[in-house]
């Protein structure tokens, strides 16, 4: 699993930062969280294949978080993509997108399946689950949590040797958590030969939000919290008025949630140098960085 930051600016792009978009790459599939204008080009710069996007999750319908979606659909249509694209968005987005879809539809071989969502588990496949809770923003918005499913336990070969258990199809039952009886009459239980299941990673993405107490429990113990940090302490009043967060706000949430790593994004164009944002965050939570476009984190 790898997190790739395709755009890390807030509200408008800069020379060095594109608009919000975070790709999570997992076993060949890409799960995209927000899709700001220019995201299709950011895919090229990052060396990612936009045709591998399985789902897009839109946190809210402010333009800087989804204007890249029509371009992404257009480009993948020209690439002759055939796999349907799932798009999850807040209520009201379907009405907006239906107008655009009339223009985009003739140039593609795949369907865009748009699903409007509320809080709770909004998506599941064989590898991951995605949950949503309401953010605190100037319009309805959401934060997301992606939970990688636990990997099934592996059979420890040294235990097979130790217990003199022969190879064979009966091992599938043990791996599935079922006991077996060997030809010599011995009963072998799964816990005798299986390693511990590998816990799946948890990644939380705040979207645009003022400090949100609900996010603390939602992100509890997460491997990574990706949190907006639009402003520094000096613009705290502006952050409160616009329902955004300072870098210190984000760090306080990370500390209370007990996350392992905090990544700050959605940086206002006023900050060409992010050292102030970083230093203020570090006063509250040490394990933090400010993301740049194309920053990658492997889990």
Structure description:
This protein is an alpha/beta fold and 299 residues long. It has two domains: 2-151 and 198-298, Ribonuclease Z/Hydroxyacylglutathione hydrolase-like (Metallo-beta-lactamase, Chain A), CATH 3.60.15.10; 157-192, no CATH class. Helices cover 25% and strands 26% of the residues. It has nine helices and 18 strands. It has helices at residues 39-46, 69-78, 93-104, 157-162, 170-175, 213-218, 236-242, 247-257, 275-282; strands at residues 2-7, 9-10, 21-26, 29-33, 53-57, 85-89, 112-116, 120-124, 128-134, 142-148, 180-181, 187-188, 202-205, 224-228, 261-265, 267-268, 288-290, 296-298. The strands form four sheets. A seven-stranded mixed β-sheet has the order 7-6-5-4-3-1-18, covered by helices on one side. It has a seven-stranded mixed β-sheet with strand order 8-9-10-13-14-15-17. Helix 8 (247-257) runs parallel beside helix 9 (275-282). The protein is globular, with a radius of gyration of 22 Å. 40% of the residues are buried. The mean pLDDT is 95.
How would you briefly describe this protein structure?
It is built from 9 helices and 18 strands. By secondary structure, it is α/β, with parallel strands linked by helices.
Report the CATH C-level class of the largest domain: Alpha Beta
Roughly how much helix do the residues carry, as a percent range?
10-25%
Mean pLDDT: 95
Distance between the termini: 5 Å
Low-confidence runs of at least 5 consecutive residues? none
The proportion of strand residues reads 25-35%
The largest sheet has its strands arranged as 7-6-5-4-3-1-18
Task: Give the overall shape, derived from the CA principal axes.
Answer: globular
- The assigned CATH architecture of the largest domain is 4-Layer Sandwich
The biggest sheet, with number of strands, parallel, antiparallel or mixed sense and barrel status, is: 7 strands, mixed
**Count of helical stretches:** 9
Secondary-structure element pattern, one letter each: EEEEHEHEHEEEEHHEEEHEHHEEHEE
- What structural category arises from helix and sheet content? alpha/beta
Q: How many structurally independent domains?
A: 2
The CATH topology of the largest domain turns out to be Metallo-beta-lactamase, Chain A
* Number of β-strand runs: 18
* The CATH homologous superfamily of the largest domain: Ribonuclease Z/Hydroxyacylglutathione hydrolase-like
């Amino acid at each position: 699993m790898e997190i790739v930051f395709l755009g890390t600016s807030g509200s408008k792009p800069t020379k060095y930062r594109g608009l919000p978009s975070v790709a999570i790459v997992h076993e060949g599939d890409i799960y995209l969280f927000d899709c700001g204008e220019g995201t299709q080009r950011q895919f090229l710069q990052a060396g990612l294949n936009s045709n591998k996007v399985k789902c897009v999750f839109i946190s809210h319908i402010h333009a800087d978080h989804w204007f890249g979606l029509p371009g992404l659909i257009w480009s993948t249509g020209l690439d002759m993509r055939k796999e349907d694209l799932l798009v999850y968005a807040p209520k009201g987005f379907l009405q907006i997108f239906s107008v655009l879809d009339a223009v985009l539809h003739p140039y593609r071989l795949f369907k865009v399946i748009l699903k409007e969502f509320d809080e709770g588990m909004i998506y599941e496949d064989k590898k991951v689950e995605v949950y949503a809770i309401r953010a605190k923003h100037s319009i309805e918005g959401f934060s997301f949590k992606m939970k990688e499913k636990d990997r099934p336990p592996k059979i420890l070969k040294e235990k097979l040797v130790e217990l003199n258990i022969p190879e064979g199809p009966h091992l599938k039952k043990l791996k599935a958590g079922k006991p077996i009886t060997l030809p010599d009459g011995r009963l072998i239980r799964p816990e005798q030969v299986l390693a511990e299941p590998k816990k799946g990673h948890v990644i939380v993405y705040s979207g645009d939000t003022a400090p949100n107490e609900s996010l603390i429990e939602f992100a509890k113990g997460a491997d990574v919290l990706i949190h907006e940090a639009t402003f520094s302490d000096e613009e705290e009043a502006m952050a409160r008025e616009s329902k955004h967060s300072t870098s210190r706000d984000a760090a306080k949430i990370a500390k209370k949630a007990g996350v392992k790593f905090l990544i700050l994004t959605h940086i206002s164009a006023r900050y060409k140098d992010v050292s102030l944002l970083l230093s203020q965050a570090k006063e509250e939570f040490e394990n933090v960085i400010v993301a740049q476009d194309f920053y990658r984190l492997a889990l």
